Fold this sequence. Notes:
disordered N terminus; alpha+beta; five-stranded mixed sheet
Amino acid sequence: xxxxxxxxxxxxxxxxxxxxxxxxxxxxxxxxxxxxxxxxxxxxxxxxxxxxxxxxxxxxxxxxxxxxxxxxxxxxxxxxxxxxxxxxxxxxxxxxxxxxxxxxxxxxxxxxxxxxxxxxxxxxxxxxxxxxxxxxxxxxxxxxxxxxxxxxxxxxxxxxxxxxxxxxxxxxxxxxxxxxxxxxxxxxxxxxxxxxxxxxxxxxxxxxxxxxxxxxxxxxxxxxxxxxxxxxxxxxxxxxxxxxxxxxxxxxxxxxxxxxxxxxxxxxxxxxxxxxxxxxxxxxxxxxxxxxxxxxxxxxxxxxxxxxxxxxxxxxxxxxxxxxxxxxxxxxxxxxxxxxxxxxxxxxxxxxxxxxxxxxxxxxxxxxxxxxxxxxxxxxxxxxxxxxxxx
Length: 391
């Protein structure tokens, strides 16, 4: 809102009026020294009230006028009720007096008139008293209603201000969300670049799955096959593990521990899953079919970077459990095909399970987490938890 009026003394102004003709009426605006129409903002001129004070006065005045209109309507109803009440009462009393036999006689008419006048005065006095009580009641209702209307209008004003604040907060949230999306996009691009670099390094190190080398290993004669030993307790020299012929059809997903054990014996033992590289011994990080809780219990007192690999009950593969500084991470390792790879976090494919573990002793698993495999977590009980896999 703007206010037109006399400019402050500190500003040089000029004011011109052109002659007004009957056929050519127009207005010459008050101009400032800069040639622009001169205005000032309400609340900034000399003697102006602040906007908040004017707003409060307007709200209070609107509430007072509304309450006054409602009170006038209530009083008209109340006044009509009082008038009817006493008019009916007076008519009834007159009827009663006229019904008295003594009023028929002439000598008693004067006494009856005096009695009638006294009764009229009494009714009039009572009517005035009730009118005053009614007026006081209406006045109190009017004050109460004015307060209610004031707070209603005040709440509406505050709600409008809150809505403006919420809109500003929403715009700020939208801006932050857009910035977060851009940052996620940049991180995703960095992750893709990092994965590409890892893949190139994996190829250079010869850790990408090579089916030909695996077939050469599996095609060796029984006379040349190395004997596989593990750390199961018992007297006498370690017994060799026979490699069974694959004669069963694998289900779509593991359905029982017995099926998992059979899968491991028929598909994973020939691929030397869980063995140290170029040795006859089981790797210190390898564990059997143990639960997530058991894995975290084993890693509980170890430092960040400690890890173990356990046979999974969810997929045809394994779970790598990793110790964080505070907490744990669990990565699924797919072994359903002719290679080993992490599900969803690492595109690199490895010919053996040991290749995957050794690769991530030098290369992080995820860019965001920076996980490097450091200290293997071994067995705690005897016999070891992988005992059923090698029986």
